[in-house]
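Illustration 12: Sugar ABC transporter permease.
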Amino acid sequence: MKERSKMSSTQVKATQMESPSSALDKVKKFASRNGALIGLVILCLVLAFATPAFLTANNILNVGIQAATVAILAFGQTFVIVAAGIDLSVGSVAAVSSMIVAYTGASMGLPAWMTIIVGILAGAVFGGLSGLANAYLKLPSFIATLAMMSVARGLTLVISDGRPITTSGLVNFFGSNLAGIPVPIMMMVIMGIIAAVILNLTSAGRSMYAVGGNMEASRLSGISVHKTQIMVFVLSGVFAAVAGLVIAGRLHSAQPQAATGYEMDAIASVVIGGASLSGGKGRISGTFVGAILLAVIRNGLNILNVSSFWQQVVIGLVIAFAVSFDTLRRQEDAH
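Figure caption equivalent — predicted structure in token form:
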């Protein structure tokens, strides 16, 4: 009995000695997985103390509206980055899709609901072409989508002749309010749920993680790598088209230069949210937090009357920090 009691007391002491480091490891793991969320909470607290205008209902809704378009683009971008690719064309695809919606309604007389379907299909086609170039022509996704970015933006200017085209009432609904809630925020939530279901609860999502983690092993295990590569770009194109609808709805018109530079914010949102640029890692919830974080930064700087030039500097530093953090995290995982 004495020996047993000694053993049990020894085990208790060992457990007590291990618990601090175990708790520290858990904290580190949580911080590593949720760094963007922690940063968002801290930033909101700082801005709340810095200016009383930040936590007003109108401003919070404004942050949500500002984040909506980038978040929708970023949800589509998440599929591509998880599968070890990158899509530089999402901003241009959003612009050309919205322009096709406006043109088919104004010049071709199609019903508004049909123009929306045509615009979304156009986004899928542009994304699919990038996917085909990446999968079968063996073009790196960076080059394939850089080319598509130029093609899509050029077609936007060709279709519009460089001028805005007014959109119909149904398209404008995407920029309106419903029961006091901005529709762009609703669309952000809906598209986020759809993206999370695809990525987490379908075989397609599992294939994306597998291809991004190890392409050759995925091929040997029977996963159609080419099909997966095309699929992620098609999804990215569809989400870009929806983002284009939201932009057109807010502006009540399709603008030739709409969403210029948005691809960088989308990529930044995904990386800030914890995805790895090397593929195989990423979460829609993290991407959502990343998009909100960028919107809060811009909103806070605007409220504090910081020059738009300095805002670009701050956003650039945030992106650099996020990418550096991802690199360090991958190096630690390798060791």
